[in-house]
Amino acid sequence: MKPEVQNFYHVRKRMHHQEHRGHRARRKSKAPFIPSFVFSVSFVVKRLSWTRPFGIAGEVRALVALPLSTHTNLMNRFENQIAIVTGAGRGIGESIAKRLAEGGAKVACVSRSEANSAKVAEAINAAHPGAARAYAVDVADKAAVEAASARIFADFGRVDILVNNAGITRDGLAMRMSEEDWDAVIDTNLKGAFNFIQAVLRPMIKQRSGRIVNISSVAGLMGNAGQANYAASKAGLLGLTKTLARELAGRNITVNAVAPGFIKTDMTDVLPEAIKTGVLPQIPLARFGDPEDIAAAVTFLVSADAKYITGQTLSVDGGMVMA
Predict the structure, then answer these.
(1) C-alpha torsion angle, residues 137, 138, 144, 146 (rounded to 10)
(2) What is the three-class DSSP state of 118?
(3) Which residues contact 85 (CB under 8 A, 6 or more apart)?
(4) Which of 2, 21, 31, 201 has its CA 20 to 30 A from that of 95?
(5) Angle, alpha carbons 254-194-305 (nearest 5°)
(6) 148, 137 Cβ separation under 8 angstroms
(7) Comparing C-alpha atoms, which of 284, 283, 291 is closest to residue 263?
(8) In sequence order, what DSSP letters do the residues of 161-206 get, joined into one string?
């Protein structure tokens, strides 16, 4: 018998004898009857923690206390944390910003449109007073991003979470696509994310903590005819995510991506009905997703529950892309 197996056998044997002696002692002292389900609970705890010589009562107390000591309070899981959400003026970004605020975060709502960012910030503040501020920024403009980031740090003092959601489309077949359409999409979707990452990176490294989530797309995973620029920008985000995850892991900063499938937003609302109908057979769940589905995935990735996850892409697509 191998030494480690032998040691394990002896530990279990000692535990069995200790528990047997405990049973006899309780019978002699006429201890109160303990229902059988308690012993079942005790058995589960021992199976999870074989080498701890708890008595039954101690193991039951440990199990009962477990949810209170390990489960995060969803209502304040982001308390005292500051989040930047780009593209927060509508759709997926708006849902992400609201979800983070519900968890107790203070949110910088970034949108190219001042009216849209202000509208979302006002809605958040109506439900959670003082939880949001609005910033009108073109993420493709590096100088504008640097100026906005300086204001955010002045207003909030720090940044713990960055969600790069800002994105546009300029669809067309590759042979007819103009340089202007190519550059506009790459500059907003890919360069824009990099601009904000650079703006918050030094402070995150200094505080030795941070969560970055880049919103990619299934188009970046599988391509999509007529979207060469968009698919390239979203695939680029996946490469950026993995590279940064490797660079920043030593500073306790995680970097992940979410790849939405077809989500009910302004961008998909304008699709012809024939295209929508043609897409549904490709989705095993046979329906489009909601912005809240993406917000839930992002909320998980920026939470303490995902502290050991980095460099990953989470597809939220109803099963459309299965690796």
Answers:
(1) 80
(2) helix
(3) 93, 96, 97, 100, 107, 108, 109, 110, 163, 165
(4) 201
(5) 20
(6) yes
(7) 291
(8) EEEE-------B-GGG--HHHHHHHHIIIIIHHHHHHHHHHHHHHH
Spatial distance between the Cα atoms of 102 and 89, rounded to a whole number of angstroms = 17
Query: Of 247, 145, 140, which is closest to residue 196 (Cα–Cα)?
Result: 145
Q: Which two tokens stand for residue 30?
A: 């006429």
CB 89, CB 119: distance < 8 Å: yes
Q: Which residues contact 103 (CB under 8 A, 6 or more apart)?
A: 74, 75, 76, 77, 78, 79, 299, 303
Q: DSSP letter string over 27-91?
A: HHTTPPP--HHHHHHHHHHHHHSTT----HHHHHHHHHHHHHHHS--TTSTTTT-EEEEETTTSH
Q: Among positive and negative, which fits the CA dihedral 243, 244, 245, 250?
A: positive
Q: Which 3 state secondary structure label does DSSP give 1? A: coil
CA 174 to chain CA centroid, nearest Å:
33
For 131-180, how does the pLDDT look when each residue is reduced to its tens digit (9 = 90+)? Answer: 999 999 999 999 999 999 999 999 999 999 999 999 999 999 999 999 99
**Distance from C-alpha of 231 to C-alpha of 237, rounded to nearest angstrom:** 10
From residue 130, alpha-carbon distances to 17, 127, 229 in Å are 60, 9, 38
Per-residue pLDDT tens for 119-139? Answer: 999 999 999 999 999 999 999
**CA distance linking residue 299 with residue 195, whole number of Å:** 22
Q: 3-state DSSP call for residue 129? A: coil
Catalytic annotation, residues = 230
List, in order, residues 6 or more apart from 313 with CB less than 8 Å away. Answer: 216, 221, 238, 241, 256, 257, 258, 259
Residue 172: closest CA among 234, 233, 236, 229:
229
**C-alpha pair distances (Å), 18 with each of 11, 13, 24, 55:** 11, 9, 10, 8
Containing 316, the helix (H) or strand (E) segment is: strand 313-316
pLDDT band at 10 (very low <50, low <70, confident <90, very high): low
Secondary structure of residue 264 in the 3-state scheme: coil
Looking at residue 101, its amino acid is A
pLDDT score at 225:
93
